[in-house]
What does this fold into?
Amino acid sequence: MAAAPGSKTTQLAALMNNQGVLVANEFAASRVKVLHANIERCGVRNAALSNYDARVFGGWLPEQFDAILLDAPCSGEGTVRKDPDAMKNWSLDSTAEIAATQKDLIESAFHALKVGGTLVYSTCALSRRKSKRGRASS
It folds into this structure.
């Protein structure tokens, strides 16, 4: 659902022995080019690349995927210790927006997943602040 730059995509393709269909979606058009380059470089032949906001998959493709890996975008808080400039872009509002996006993405992934399928969710977000919708997220 957020596939660039492609290391997890290429690992999944290898685990699948380049068989079946692997949908690698990336929302940021500028990052799709890097994703495509890495997939080509690694000889992946079973990947279909898409460039959508992954929040649409649950509605567009309900119960269609056997497995979904969602490495959700994060607030970047973990980079503050090594990148002092990261604090210039950080705010409580941006943290709440990221939390809301993460919630939307996991809900979309859940709806796109077949009954009995596997959903792997990860994020590097550190904040336990609530999203703007008032629900706790981390």
